[in-house]
Amino acid sequence: MARRPLPRILTSGSDRIARSREIARTAADSATDVLHPLITITRGLRRLAATARAKWAATPKERRGPTLFLVAACVLVVALVPYGPLLALVGVMGAAAWKGRERPVVKTGPDEAELARLQGLYEALVPYFSVPDDPAPLFAHGGEWSSAFGDHTFDDDGRLTRLRIKYPAYFTDGEAASRARIEQLLHAKSGRGREYRFDWDEEGNQLVMTVLAPLPTAIAAQRFVTAPGETVLGFTDADTVQRTVPVVTAEGEEDAPAVVWRTGPRSTEPHLLVVGQPGSGVSSLLRSIALQALPHGDVLIVEGAGTGEYACLAGRAGVLAVECGLSGALASLEWAAQETERRLIAANRARQAGLPAPEDTKRPLWLLLDRPSVLTHLAAADDRTDPQTLLQVPLRHGRAAQVTVVVAEQFDSVDAVGEAVRSHTRARVVLGPASPAQTASVLGTEPHTTPTPDVPPGRGYARLGTAPVLRLQVPATPDPYDDAAPAAHRQAVTSLLPPRASALAPDPVPDQDLLSEPDTESTQQHAAVTAET
């Protein structure tokens, strides 16, 4: 049977209805825009009337008569004043307009997506915070998350930035493995790629998870405001240290929370050990330490890798030597050990005679060793003295002799670090991406934060003695001869370099017999060290 076509009024009726609705909506929007002031004033008058009615209801009955008399007197005075009613009307309209203005809606709770995230996180914690014998479990499948979660804060993307968790008292929060499982779960469920800090309150059975902001990486090398014997290792979170130093950045001057390492006779952590991955900023930290030490002391650098990271310091005033070969390193470290003994003997004789210590024993001496394990391997192959054994005297007696030792090594060679270095370097720094186990093996304890897999150069952790583990960002101190580094940072390092030693004194003329020796480079470097010292 053939279908009959629908009447035209039925086929075009939907279009007419839609067009009518659009016209009505446009007219309503136009009317709302035109009548918006009147709507605002009307809303304000209604709110003022409601406020006045609430005030009148809250007034005691014995005070309503005087209040009514006072209001009537005010109305009479306004009526008798010239232009009084007009001014009163304008004032009331202004108050109504201010009272009836539209205010932004304040978010008072999580939305549906955030509620779903909190409920999912609650369900994920049930297997860890519940036992079958608990008569009233705080965590149970299908339970309410509001009984265990508090102080929850979300960012613009709907991810948690802060959360307080209340857990049962029988949870083994005193075991590191139990805490690590909870931290790993929260890290995975709250969003990867960010750094979290976990604060465990074992007395109150509460855990606070906080998302940490990234540390600033724009602070370049500069003259920091510190006292003699203080070295800025880097910068950390503002709520973990009590000291700030003024710094200059691209945005201007500001006060940054700094990790300050104190050396000298009264220091409890006179020596430093730095461990990191290749390209993590270990050489930048040693250059930063050298630039801060040169205004007040002398620096001796031993570079085992021989990559020329410290060539910019060679021949500078205050730099005794920059050794890259095994022979030069052994000669320089042997001299450093003898110099330490000489300072101890001179200071001891002065004290026995009742005199102050000689001035040549007060000037700090810094020994910076980058990757000494390479030299240890070469010494073992040539059956020569291990350079690290020559550090025993400076490490053991360096605090009294104003000698500071800084040793830098990579994770793949950290096992080659000698026992003397491990036992006397109480200040530790870990740079670059590292697992919690690797960080704990160097610092002695795991940090309270979860490191991210991708970190900028110079980013890591620091621990001074038995103090808490701090996040650390080393000041940008690149090699000024590295064209890949930012020009502003290279210029900052160049401006801090001391003048060349040749500009202060004429270069010694080398002996022709010494130039004819096979080990000419090492002999010349050793002669330069002896001549300058």
Automatic annotation (TrEMBL):
Keyword set, alphabetical order: Membrane, Transmembrane, Transmembrane helix
TM spans (from-to): 68-98
Region annotation Disordered: where it falls in the sequence: 436-460, 497-533
Composition skew (Polar residues), residue ranges: 436-452, 521-533
Domain of life: Bacteria
Keyword Isomerase: no
Name by which UniProt lists this protein: FtsK domain-containing protein
Originating species: Streptomyces solicathayae
